[in-house]
Amino acid sequence: METEFNQLNCKLVGLSVDGLYSHIAWLRTIKEKIEYKGLKNVEVKFPLIEDITMEVAQKYGMIQPGESNTKAVRAVFFIDPKGIIRAMIYYPLSLGRNFDEIKRALIAMQTADKHSIATPADWQPGDDVIVPTAGSCGVASERMSHPKEDMTCYDWFFCTKKLPVDKI
Questions:
Q1: CATH code for the domain in which residue 10 is found
Q2: Residue 139: what pLDDT?
Q3: What is the pTM of this model?
């Protein structure tokens, strides 16, 4: 999975409120003992940051009372190349992360940035995208009656267009 994110120009970093020796034991267990959904001998190669003081976890809003003894929840932060947090997904300790959704969200944000568009709910690469309202189809009153050739307008504020997978 890490390779897929690297190919998307995304660097993974882990943060845990556990100590260094817990990290080492966790990494060793994943590599040597865990076999899940056909995956085994998984080696986590991305950096894993020790945050035993919970300073970073507190700054990122990851401390939620009542979740566990450490009170930290699982979270995913999408931080762009400028250092701006673009999206956050929080998971309670009882819920596993969905890496397909994390990857989809990353691709959607990169696509939106690259093409100045938006993506609708449940968007997947190759699906139609949303053309932003301001200036995208001309004046709002003309948008419905004279949309650009490559667009489908449902209302003045909601036009879509095709964006082939090879353009993403």
A1: 3.40.30.10
A2: 47
A3: 0.83
